[in-house]
């Protein structure tokens, strides 16, 4: 999944604001990162590339609510329900905030709600859209997760400690005085820091952190299941839906997590192709074996035939010549054709005219309603009959 990931600043965005961004070609690694005004941001690149807006941790508050019965992600009264549930917990008026419910939230179950300033978010998204970089998804920089993790982010003079885990997201200034305010952590809790904050973080926590750049963190955030584009910011319209479909297809073609599936599909195609080729080879072998057997039968039965071109036709001609030489009767002879018609139930004395030529017998005078019954009876005896007006044409074998 190729994407342009834009980290929104904490201050209101204007046309002159420098926006930090990261480009990824596969959805998991950083191909390029930097900062530019909205008008100068690079395109996502690649088929199905998308633009992802990242909301910084300092601007998102997290609340845990119990959704009442009948309320879920697509409920028309979800916004009103969330305002009622959170009204007494928020410092700002609910009307000034944008709410987003966690993925797969269900009624009558606890769910996380992310809240941020509505006007600030609207201004940032409108600026991106005005310069051809409309966000297809909005993700939080940090979100609650099952495994606790501590991170140091920001600039050395404005650094934050962010703790994520089942208890939510806690962001505090990076200082010794704020450490007691962090929720209790188990020993060995994973701990990461941006390279510029590694030494400061090690001195504060007395253990070295793992290193993770801001761009790497944003790419990781873009892969989460969260999407804050809900309610008024929900992605709608055919163009955006098509772009999301293209992004999903691109993800399927290039994302690392889909590599086993791609290999599996490729292997399945190769196996099917090999099986089809093997079946075709076997059919060709069987057909060639039958042709060889027919040629051998013809040359053994009629040694005078030196060149075999069409074995069945040559066999038929040789048999006809042999029958003619010995005076034997053929199914194509007039006597046998007349006997077959009589045995098929033709009424005696009903034939008014008989014409025979080249093994084909034409009878006139038979009642037209009986043509079909006579033809069915003849078919069981190895003859073919066709009806045209008052004439019934009979010949041995299949019609030519």
TrEMBL record:
Residue ranges constituting the GspL cytoplasmic actin-ATPase-like domain according to the UniProt record: 47-141
Keywords: Cell inner membrane, Cell membrane, Membrane, Protein transport, Transmembrane, Transmembrane helix, Transport
Pfam families: GspL_C, T2SSL
Gene3D superfamilies: 3.30.420.380
Subcellular localization: Cell inner membrane
Residue ranges of domain GspL periplasmic in the record: 257-399
Record flagged with keyword DNA-binding: no
Entry membrane topology: Single-pass membrane protein
NCBIfam families with a match to the protein in the record: typeII_sec_gspL
Family named by the database record: Belongs to the GSP L family.
Protein name listed in UniProt: General secretion pathway protein GspL
Native source organism of the sequence: Ramlibacter aquaticus
